[in-house]
Amino acid sequence: MSAASSASADTAAPDLRSGQLRNLLLATVASAVGFWAWTIVGPLSRRYAEQMELDAGRVAVLVAMPIFVGSIARVPVGALTDRYGGRTMFTVVLGVTAPLVLLTGLVGRTGSFGLLVVVAFFLGIAGTVFAVGIPFCSAWYESHRKGFATGVFGAGMVGTAVSAFFTPRLVAGLGYLGAHVAIAIVVAVMAVLCAVALRDSPVHTAKTPEPVLPKMKHAFTLVVTWQLCFLYGVVFGAFVAFSNYLPTYLDNVYGWDAAAAGARTAGFALAAVVARPIGGMLADRVGPRTVTVVSLVGTALLAVVVAFQPGAERVYGPTFLAMALFLGLGTGGVFAWVGRAAPPRDVGTVGGIIAAAGGLGGYFPPLVMGATYDAENSSYFVGLTLLAVFAVAALVLAFTVRNGGKVDERARG
Fold this sequence. Notes:
The protein is an all-alpha fold. The chain has one domain: MFS general substrate transporter like domains (Growth Hormone, Chain: A, Up-down Bundle). Helices cover 82% and strands 0% of the residues. It is built from 19 helices and no strands. It has helices at 3-38, 45-52, 56-72, 74-84, 86-108, 113-123, 129-138, 146-154, 158-174, 176-197, 202-205, 212-220, 223-254, 258-286, 288-307, 313-341, 347-372, 381-398, 406-412. Helix 1 (3-38) packs parallel to helix 8, helix 5 packs antiparallel against helix 6 (113-123) and helix 15 packs antiparallel against helix 16. The longest helix has 36 residues, at 3-38. The radius of gyration is 20 Å and the shape is globular. The two termini are 15 Å apart.
């Protein structure tokens, strides 16, 4: 290394270290708030079903709708984050989400299924916070610590646990509309904090802005984009699907009310949240391929167990929690791959596409679960068996993705 380059590295390093942890933690909290807003429909699905006399299929459509737009919109939002920075995009996304949460509450009181589906569609904008945070946090950390950064940021998924646990309780304490007002205020305050306190990494501010559409087109030409899309679609998609549909599942199969089902769903989401940063850190040490393979093997086996619908909570409870842990490890492992496999200038765009694939992976399972639900036997055997099949397919694919081992990572770093 030349004297000039050494001096340059010494100059850049303090700039990163002085702000990386603060910005990472604030971005993670912003993500948690966004995820809470994104998933407020699922915990109230039983209320909507009773109020509007909905069957399992229409409930599934309603629950899945925010996931759909939150997935598709991650692609342009990731590219826009590359161009305008995470501070601006966090502020915009959360600023738009706050009134949408309030609108959800207002429309939900009317009892109109069609209007609520439309509003739930736009509420999905909240889910794009993930595509903002991945490039934002990744840019704050050195290449050999990007797994740690994206893993910690991924813990913002705890917002789904917060939603599952607190949303029904807020409705019980403040009333249906009052709960939505309270959540909207939290989101609005977070938007202001992002505008005031977040700061983009010097690595990002030094980049020359590039047009969004060519960057998106280029990202779609990368083989690794499609490979990681499938892997993330399975692990994160299963997490999102269960986090949103589990209250309905627990009601239909085991008869739990909204509060009890929400508490158990929160436990599922929290287990995945705890496992995600661990998956990212393990990926830094042993390689993302190893972490992802372990995740998929565990997911496939446990999906088979759940498909046979054990009757005792002492059996299905730990089984769901273990599945959440494996899925959390996988989400951390797969996204640790992004910062290593994607070209540095395309991390935000590629990450946005992969994040969209993960969201879409969570969009279809609730629809499948609703369509294949055996009401006579209160069984979701077909849907859970399909999860096991897709996990096995992803397991095979994981061995074909480049830069997944420890040596490859260090070589890139």
